[in-house]
Input
Amino acid sequence: MTLMLLVAHFLALGVAVMVFGWMIFLQRRNRAADNINHSAGEFSPPHAAAMRPSTWLAVRSLGPEAVRAVLADKDEFFISPRVNGWVIVTGSGLPDPGDDVDACHLFLTAVSRELGHVQFFHAEKFSAHHAWARLDDGCVTRAYAWAG
Output
């Protein structure tokens, strides 16, 4: 009876060692594959949040043409098609509230005067600074920001 228990314990220990060995093998194989992808010049982000822009606008609009007309003097924007009544704007032409909050405010109020309902989003990945503002017809109706 004691011998059977001892054999059962060794069998369980052997299975556990095999499972942990298999997990280590898979981890090393995945790490090696990642190193090959990175050395070949391919980019594979760790998760979808790495692809998100740090600053964007959501504009309630009839279409991207109206937004494009207001932002026509600048080529630094990506203007999405209309989705459920909203047009999303991203790009380097959007102001960073951390650089100059007054310039950001003036930009947003000017856009909102022309387009009506505008929401501004800003979220920096590394510093964790973030801001949100809602503007209606050129007036800030709600706003929030955190910069440490």
Remarks:
- The chain has two domains: 1-44, 48-146.
- The mean pLDDT is 85.
